[in-house]
Amino acid sequence: xxxxxxxxxxxxxxxxxxxxxxxxxxxxxxxxxxxxxxxxxxxxxxxxxxxxxxxxxxxxxxxxxxxxxxxxxxxxxxxxxxxxxxxxxxxxxxxxxxxxxxxxxxxxxxxxxxxxxxxxxxxxxxxxxxxxxxxxxxxxxxxxxxxxxxxxxxxxxxxxxxxxxxxxxxxxxxxxxxxxxxxxxxxxxxxxxxxxxxxxxxxxxxxxxxxxxxxxxxxxxxxxxxxxxxxxxxxxxxxxxxxxxxxxxxxxxxxxxxxxxxxxxxxxxxxxxxxxxxxxxxxxxxxxxxxxxxxxxxxxxxxxx
Amino acid sequence: xxxxxxxxxxxxxxxxxxxxxxxxxxxxxxxxxxxxxxxxxxxxxxxxxxxxxxxxxxxxxxxxxxxxxxxxxxxxxxxxxxxxxxxxxxxxxxxxxxxxxxxxxxxxxxxxxxxxxxxxxxxxxxxxxxxxxxxxxxxxxxxxxxxxxxxxxxxxxxxxxxxxxxxxxxxxxxxxxxxxxxxxxxxxxxxxxxxxxxxxxxxxxxxxxxxxxxxxxxxxxxxxxxxxxxxxxxxxxxxxxxxxxxxxxxxxxxxxxxxxxxxxxxxxxxxxxxxxxxxxxxxxxxxxxxxxxxxxxxxxxxxxxxxxxxxxxxxxxxxxxxxxxxxxxxxxxxxxxxxxxxxxxxxxxxxxxxx
Lengths: 305, 355
Fold this sequence. Notes:
The complex is a heterodimer of chains A (305) and B (355).
Chain A: H1 3-30, H2 38-56, H3 59-83, H4 88-107, H5 132-136, H6 141-159, H7 161-171, H8 173-178, H9 183-209, H10 221-231, H11 236-258, H12 265-284, H13 287-293
Helix pairs in contact in A: 1-6, 1-9, 1-10, 1-11, 2-3, 2-4, 2-9, 2-10, 3-4, 3-9, 6-7, 6-11, 10-11, 10-12, 11-12
Chain B: E1 2-6, H1 12-36, H2 41-49, H3 56-81, H4 89-106, H5 115-141, H6 145-165, H7 200-217, H8 219-229, H9 231-237, H10 241-268, H11 279-289, H12 294-318, H13 324-339, H14 341-344, E2 345-349
Antiparallel strand pairs in B: 1-2
Helix pairs in contact in B: 1-2, 1-13, 2-12, 3-7, 3-10, 3-11, 3-12, 4-5, 4-6, 4-10, 4-11, 5-6, 5-10, 7-8, 7-12, 8-9, 8-10, 11-12, 11-13, 12-13
């Protein structure tokens, strides 16, 4: 089989984890809330999803558990940030630190567990095509669901009333409040939706992608996803592209290693993190561009009345 | 229903009471966790709050862990007061350790005592350079310092991993990824016999005093913080926000690097992949729980050190996973942030429908 077909397939797979998380974070950032707890939510969801599959044998139960875990943690974060007016950065950080500790704590019991044989997927006819089949059409359904979700999000944000209200809450919460929209409730829902998607990303990682539980296995993907929303200037389609770009980068690292390129593996492992910094620098260089695209009240608390 | 009502000014009482309430809440949640795990909560609490204070040796161990936490937190508090979100102290700690380790590896058996200040300086400079990278990218390219400093943590750990797997690997080390053990001349002098605590404790306490003077008794320290409290006022007064950014990051990088140097040349004594122990992240909690005040952070560093030691004891004596430390650290910060609401707001009971 062609190596490049496999590389492309692996890129889609790796990018899906980042895309799911970043799309989720995009939703709550559009509503004006930054959640630095992505890493923690993904870790807790990863262990929740993994544990659920170990106990029930059903991947769907794993995804559901991951999403529930992510949404529940996001809800705690949301209540603190939205109702108690705590600092969004500090609270998100608390969530990340808690998530790292809590997932490691719960995960001890699951480090030796293995999941049942993973099913392989293939589209009828399309999956049998010569090069494109293995490259594009033999992925887990969640991969295609993610693409569909990004498209749905474009439609939701820019073509529906719901999206308009969500963006209004992020751009000008006071106007939205004056028009009678429950700003805090909408923000909480957006934060929970973000948490659920981060949760799905975490569960996909531990149930399908790896599939294993290893302490700290999210390995900074939550933070990279946060950077992706800035990189994509808060546009869903660009988030998707950015996620595949970074997915490709992580895969390139393995590809180069197996191709026998003489670089210490540590430098290749550091590649996605360095790339994140480079990309952030390139995109932030022009402050006006960021300011124009960023939800105007991002990170700012809102007190009605 | 319960309503939050803004107070006319920040409550002085709750400024001090909120960390205490947060600790109480964390302990309460801890008891629930122990009960859920079917462990004796009294014995578990003993591990965290009594065993670390029981003997002279135990107190020494408490200081060993409190020192890096306090040093890093001092620098971070300056950052947070200046509204600079450096959360990459762990990376600066690691690079400080790598630089200090590099100097320590140069030492031979007959090297003079100058090697200790030299390696400490190398650690400080290394940490400053690593944090300076974040400052540069923020200052010059407007890149978000939270994400940059955090990404640099992963890169720093890769640098350490590369060094101990490659150039600095001990040839006589049975292929373990670690450097050779440093010569004894590089050892940080200990405070007293019978305890692993070294002069790092003194450096950290002196640092707390210096920070207090800088923050509350100098004009430069005042100018540094105004940007964090009221950016518009700072601009009007002509205080440079760029200067504040650089000062905050260089100082915090320096203290984190110093902590890293003290750690490798002190308790660890060689470079290993286990140098990053999460102090850089735990110090964020130390800084917030200590109210970003030097005195408060001395206390919160001791508290956080108890969490570390308690976690280790709970693992060895009660069979609890050591990661319980991380759970408590996270819970403590959550509780603190929630309790801090009471500083600016009061709770008022309102009959339904009334306003």
